[in-house]
Amino acid sequence: MTRTIRRPDVARAYGAGEIVLFPGKADHLYRVRTGLVRLHTVDDDGAGVTLRYVKPGGYFGEERLIDRPRRYFAEAVTNSDIEELDADDLDGEQQRDLTRRLAAAIDGMNRAMHRLAGKPLRARIAAELLELSDSELALRSHDGTPVVRVTHDDLAAAVGSVRETVTKVVGELARAGAIRAGYGKITIQDAAKLRAEAGEERV
Asked: Which of 40, 53, 86, 157 keeps 20 to 30 A from 137, CA to CA?
């Protein structure tokens, strides 16, 4: 009886800010082991637009499954360990996990598009901060409060706006008591109030 020996997954460490993938031919599937990865593209004006974040356990590079070119950049937002997978070698459990994770990613992108199309900027920023508060970008203060390490430029790219406008809205949310803004970080002071601002039961 011939025994198939599966090639071990290849993992590589990336530093914060390092580009993992460029647009082009999709040769592999990728899974985030640790850290946070941002998938983004560049619009006609040269501005970066965030498509989605990939958290630990999540996949990207799914274009390999349908033999389509990749049209986005993948960037390690934090120090990250990323596995390179051969899509043809996934076993049954890995395929089921991939399906679940990609379905969740599609749901998240659909909700993000709904926010972009039908919700005011204040709600979009509140939802984005809640999303990032459960990621590798978030630290915990001494009392357990989430502190998200994000700049106004990064928020603007994620919600489809510009830094100046985002800064104004962040100030409004701070005055409402939902957050506290600092240099390069935003503290979630009242998650319930932020969820109410987002107008979503689940974000």
From this structure: 86
**At a CB cut-off of 8 Å and minimum separation 6, what does 41 contact?**
23, 48, 49, 51, 71, 72, 73
How far is residue 132's CA from residue 72's CA, in Å, rounded to a whole number?
20
Q: pTM of whole model > 0.85? A: no
- CATH numbers and ranges of domains, the chain: 10-115 (2.60.120.10), 119-198 (1.10.10.10)
pLDDT band for position 86 (cuts 50, 70, 90): confident
pLDDT in tens, 141-177: 788 889 999 999 989 888 888 899 999 999 999 999 9
Would you list the DSSP string of 58-105? -EE-GGGGGT--B-SEEEESSSEEEEEE-GGG--HHHHHHHHHHHHHH
User: Residues near 87 by Cβ (< 8 Å), separated by ≥ 6?
Assistant: 28, 29, 64, 65
- Closest to 28 in 3D by CA, of 76, 88, 85, 70: 85
Q: Judge residue 45's burial from the number of C-beta atoms within 10 Å of its C-beta, 0-12 exposed, 13-18 middle, 19 or more buried.
A: exposed
